[in-house]
Design brief:
It contains 9 helices and no strands.
């Protein structure tokens, strides 16, 4: 991302202030630029215009998670899942928030649902393994961890990636590049 993109998205928003997608795109770009406070404002503006904007909910959940506000992250990702029930990422993020809250048992169904929706979601298997291990279910945890590794998931410090659309699953937030509208849009 770069500041030029943010400027272009702000300019585009001036002509379409009632466009939830335009606010989402700008919020996504601001988040990628490392300005979560400004991003949060744009994401909330998107939700005022479209309360079912799954991308805005997931990104707000990511912001809350980065602040260690796991209850808010859980709530935001529940709302994302309500808006888009097929969004595996929202379920993974719910499980992560529940782990953050120390609720390993409650995290299991979230990770299992994410895997049901996306059987190749290595992050879901990896974090399911963590939850299982916390519950003393070591053998199941080993299987899940091995499968996550086989799928190519490598644990490490997750990079917060903003979510623009609800069609790509990545741990914590969804990958997405903000759309730069053409002058005619």
């Amino acid at each position: 991302m770069n500041r030029d993109l943010v400027v272009a998205l702000r300019r585009a928003l001036e002509s379409r202030p009632s466009d939830a997608e335009a606010h989402l795109r700008l919020g996504t770009a601001l988040l990628a630029e490392g300005d979560p406070a400004a991003a949060e404002g744009e994401l909330r503006a998107a939700l005022e215009l479209d309360p079912r904007c799954a991308g805005a909910w997931v990104n707000l959940g990511g912001i809350a998670f980065s602040r260690a506000d796991y209850a808010a992250a859980l709530d935001a990702n529940r709302r994302a899942a309500e808006a888009d029930p097929g969004l595996a990422l929202a379920h993974v993020n719910q499980g992560l928030a529940q782990l953050g809250l120390g609720e390993a048992e409650a995290a299991l169904p979230a990770f299992e649902r994410a895997i049901e929706l996306d059987p190749r979601a290595g992050a879901a298997y990896h974090h399911l393994a963590i939850a299982l291990r916390a519950l003393g279910r070591s053998q199941e945890a080993k299987v899940c961890a091995a499968y996550a590794e086989e799928l190519g998931f490598r644990p490490g410090r997750p990079r917060a990636r903003p979510r623009e659309r609800a069609d790509v699953a990545v741990p914590l937030t969804v990958q997405g590049e903000p759309h730069v509208p053409a002058e005619s849009e």
